[in-house]
């Protein structure tokens, strides 16, 4: 454990507090599932271990591949899950994946208004703002204002499509390949794809081009 | 985007489905989201209930009714989810953005009515 950087930083929650309603419910359900042998005690830990290996870097590789390989891109758009399974990326249960392609005329944005559904298989855990109510409520009601707050201004003649993930489908935004990246390798391209670009709150950008335009 | 998500080849015609799960709606159908408020948690956000929408795609494969299974009732046959398109101007009075802006959301067959 590292020492506290600031004297007035509150001590981390070490579990002394009285557990809340949902924490108690989670513990009770988990213990029942283990007691009834629906799951084994090690399975939750193992799942967390799997989750820790899934990060946005995986999504970036998928996007970069789609940018350089039109046949892969076509298959990915037709059936996200089956195509990624061919790459060895397995999915949790019946979750399907729809890959949403941004174009000159359409900008896609992903949200889960009911909770925090997210393509965890390829992006890992969602950012905190994705799980919080302001983003969840506003993304479907005033997406242009939300995007502007992320620094993304979408022209009026570009259609915004907000995909609300509520059930068994997860969404990955395939951002547009930035200009000036024609000679880039797949690896260099992957480095331009951020988590936020794959949620749709920003575009993928080429830092060299940004410097030039300044 | 393909008309039937999850399918990469065109299926053969006239195959009777083992579980009887033929989709009731097709891409392009006009639908309305049911207005119902059953007790419990349902994966149909209230802000879309009662709204007019269009089926953009049938989602394959057919799925069990989570809402029955989730409450301990065997759902029996599988049914489809649909990718539904609703203009944001239909959802929100006085929506300020482009009239082309829209929502896409997956809705289970039992929540859709013909419109």
Structure description:
The complex is a heterodimer of chains A (214) and B (115). Chain A is α/β, with parallel strands linked by helices. Helix content of chain A is 44%, strand content 11%. Chain A contains twelve helices and four strands. Chain A has helices at residues 21-35, 41-53, 56-68, 70-78, 80-86, 120-123, 128-131, 133-138, 143-149, 186-190, 195-199, 207-213; strands at residues 96-101, 106-111, 159-164, 169-174. In chain A, the strands form two sheets. A two-stranded parallel ribbon of chain A has the order 1-4. In chain A, strands 2-3 form a two-stranded parallel sheet. In chain A, helix 3 (56-68) crosses helix 4. The longest helix of chain A is centred in the first third of the chain and has 15 residues, at 21-35. The relative contact order of chain A is 0.15. Chain B is built from two helices and six strands, in the order E-E-E-H-E-H-E-E. In chain B, strands 1, 2, 3, 4, 5 and 6 form a six-stranded mixed beta sheet that branches. With 115 residues, chain B is mostly beta strands.
List the helices and strands and how they pair.
The complex is a heterodimer of chains A (214) and B (115).
Chain A: H1 21-35, H2 41-53, H3 56-68, H4 70-78, H5 80-86, E1 96-101, E2 106-111, H6 120-123, H7 128-131, H8 133-138, H9 143-149, E3 159-164, E4 169-174, H10 186-190, H11 195-199, H12 207-213
Parallel strand pairs in A: 1-4, 2-3
Helix pairs in contact in A: 3-4, 4-5
Chain B: E1 4-5, E2 30-33, E3 52-63, H1 66-69, E4 79-87, H2 88-91, E5 102-108, E6 112-114
């Amino acid at each position: 454990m590292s020492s506290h950087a600031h004297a007035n930083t509150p001590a981390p929650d070490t579990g002394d507090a009285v557990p809340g309603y949902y924490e108690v419910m989670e513990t009770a359900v988990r213990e029942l599932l283990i007691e009834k042998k629906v799951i084994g005690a090690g399975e939750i830990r193992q799942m967390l271990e799997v989750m820790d290996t899934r990060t946005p870097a995986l999504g970036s590789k998928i996007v970069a591949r789609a940018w350089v390989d039109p046949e892969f891109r076509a298959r990915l758009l037709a059936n996200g899950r089956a195509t990624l399974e061919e790459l060895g990326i397995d999915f949790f249960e019946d979750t399907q994946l729809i890959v949403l392609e941004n174009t000159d005329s359409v900008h896609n944005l992903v949200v889960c208004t009911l909770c925090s559904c997210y393509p965890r298989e390829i992006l890992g855990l969602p950012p905190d703002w994705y799980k919080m109510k302001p983003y969840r409520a506003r993304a479907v009601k005033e997406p242009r204002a939300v995007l502007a707050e992320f620094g993304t201004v979408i022209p009026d003649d570009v259609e915004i499509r907000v995909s609300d993930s509520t059930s068994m489908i997860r969404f990955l935004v395939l951002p547009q390949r930035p200009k000036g990246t024609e000679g880039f390798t797949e690896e260099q391209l992957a480095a331009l794809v951020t988590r936020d670009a794959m949620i749709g709150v920003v575009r993928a950008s080429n830092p060299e081009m940004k410097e030039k335009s300044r | 985007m393909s008309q039937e998500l999850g399918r990469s080849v065109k299926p053969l015609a006239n195959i009777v489905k083992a579980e009887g799960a033929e989709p009731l709606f097709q891409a392009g159908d006009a639908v309305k989201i049911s207005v119902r408020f059953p007790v419990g948690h349902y994966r149909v956000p209230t802000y879309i209930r009662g709204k007019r929408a269009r089926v953009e795609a049938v989602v394959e494969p057919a799925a069990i009714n989570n809402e029955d299974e989730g409450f301990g009732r065997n759902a029996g046959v599988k049914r489809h989810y649909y990718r539904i398109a609703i203009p944001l101007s239909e959802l929100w009075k006085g929506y300020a953005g482009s009239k082309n802006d829209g929502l896409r959301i997956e809705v289970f067959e039992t929540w859709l009515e013909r419109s």
